[in-house]
Design brief:
By secondary structure, the chain is α/β, with parallel strands linked by helices. It has 2 domains: 50-387, no CATH class; 388-448, no CATH class. It is 24% helix and 36% strand. The chain contains 12 helices and 20 strands. The chain has a 10-stranded mixed β-sheet, with helices on one face. Strands 3, 4, 6, 7, 9, 11, 13, 15, 17 and 19 form a 10-stranded mixed β-sheet that branches. A hairpin with a 2-residue loop joins β1 and β2. α9 (389-397) packs across α10 (402-418), α10 packs antiparallel against α11 and α11 (424-436) packs across α12 (441-447). The mean pLDDT is 92.
């Protein structure tokens, strides 16, 4: 397939598609290839965005093209079970799907039968089996025409996790998904794809973790979630990529009448992370909660770019994102609430709070409202500040050292977000990771 390439940095990726197309044509269903071709053509047209694009004004991803990331051609290094232990959340029972360098690892996964017709497994196998629900939903919701990296993922996706919960089924234990990258010095790119479909009146909780063992690499991620009528879906994303890695993701949530969706995104470390979230409430009476917490250091960057669409009346949304920024790190928040004409009785709230711990850290916040209905309640607010000196003084007057007082206040700032996590094992895991990044954190955790 010959694709006309725009001058912007798309060529390194587009050039790989011809070879990939032959392999994908032989392995995948026929209906998917036209979608792949349309997606790579779209990516070739727009290329990798630059800081001249308004949506990418604060996030420089030119390094993705400069470093020449390529799809892995040889066999991935063997990974032992002990190597993934630091990245699992510790749920004793339930399903755990592990993907190494984008490919499903049966040896590292734990796949007991979820029962009641619940389907959980690898996207590759679901495509081979011709699952009707995969055909119905895969690539149908994520808007690759509007998001260049989603177009790239759509063109090259090979594997990922799929979850299907039939009507009226309640999945008791969280479903855990772990993506581990073992990139070498040359650098590689992975295209994990996740599809979660919860049919009407069903309930499911899914956790998804992204982490790396070594090297510089690029994870281009797309997750599509469909919540049927009166369904309840809780989704947790944890990003723990290596320093120097790139993580660009799109989460698209499609909600139907009276459904409830809750997401919590946690980002920790020194990588460059861009999270795009689009939530569409396409039915009356929907409830959508989007929480997030970033704790960045070194040269790390976290850019949360949210778009919440109130397409029908009587829907509620709440966005609450926090960032803790140290070193030369940067936090970016762009939140847009769109209330369509006729979406009366909308109740939408958006809050972004940033805690700056060093002179070189930066935070940018850009809340936005687009309202085309007249009977609504929509609010937004943003704060950027440092630790309160009076609070430090008060704690020191009670016998705390300056470092301990500072750590306690940072932990309290993070805890307000972490306390919203409804999976106890995950909440405990993230609390430990936050404490590990604070001077005297472990001792503080024992007191807390």
């Amino acid at each position: 397939m010959t694709v006309a390439v725009k001058e912007r940095a798309a060529t390194p990726f587009v050039g790989e598609f011809d070879a990939f197309e032959k392999k994908a044509s032989a392995a995948g269903p026929g209906w998917l290839m036209p979608i792949r071709k349309a997606a790579i053509a779209r990516f070739a047209e727009v290329g990798i965005p630059t800081t001249r694009d308004e949506d990418w004004r604060y996030t420089n991803v030119s390094g993705i093209a400069k470093r020449g990331f390529r799809m892995r051609t040889g066999a991935a290094p063997a990974v032992q079970a002990s190597e993934i232990e630091p990245f699992v959340i510790g749920v004793a029972a339930g399903v755990r799907l592990v993907f190494v360098n984008g490919a499903f690892s049966a040896a590292l996964s734990r796949c007991p039968s979820a029962g009641k017709g619940v389907a959980v497994g690898s996207l590759t196998e679901a495509l081979k089996n011709g699952s009707a629900w995969v055909h119905e939903h895969l690539t149908h919701w994520a808007r690759y025409q509007a998001f260049p990296f989603a177009a790239l993922n759509t063109a090259f996706m090979e594997d990922g996790a799929v979850v299907h919960v039939p009507r009226g089924v309640v999945v008791e234990s969280p479903i855990e998904i772990v993506h581990l990258t073992t990139a070498g010095d040359a650098g590689s790119v992975n295209y994990p794809r996740t599809l979660i479909v919860a049919e009407a009146q069903s309930q499911v909780t899914v956790t998804e973790t992204y982490a790396g063992l070594n090297g510089s690499y690029f994870n281009d991620v797309v997750t599509e979630i469909v919540a049927g009528e009166s369904a309840v879906v809780d989704y947790y994303k944890v990003v723990r990529e290596r320093p120097g890695a790139f993580h660009v993701g799109l989460l698209h949530v499609q909600q139907h009448r009276s459904s409830t969706f809750t997401a919590h995104t946690s980002v920790l470390g020194e990588a460059t992370v861009r999270n795009n979230v689009t939530a569409v409430m396409d039915g009356e009476g929907c409830d959508c909660t989007l929480n997030g917490m970033g704790m960045m250091e070194g040269d790390g960057l976290v850019d949360n770019h949210l778009r919440v669409e109130h397409a029908k009346p009587h829907c509620r949304s709440w966005e609450y994102y926090k960032a803790i920024l140290d070193g030369r790190s940067r936090g970016v928040f762009t939140g847009r609430i769109v209330v369509s004409e006729g979406a009366q009785k909308t109740d939408a709230k958006q809050t972004n709070m940033n805690l700056i711990l060093s002179d070189e850290a930066l935070a940018d916040s850009k809340p936005q409202l687009e309202i085309f209905a007249d009977d609504v309640k929509c609010t937004h607010g943003a704060t950027i500040g440092q630790i309160d000196g009076d609070a430090i003084f008060y704690l020191r007057s009670r016998g705390m050292s300056a470092a301990a007082a500072r750590s306690l206040l940072v932990y309290a700032f993070a805890s307000e977000s972490l306390n919203q996590i409804r999976v106890p094992a995950l909440r405990t895991c993230l609390e430990r990771l936050v404490l590990d990044r604070l001077p005297g954190g472990r001792a503080l955790g024992a007191v807390a």
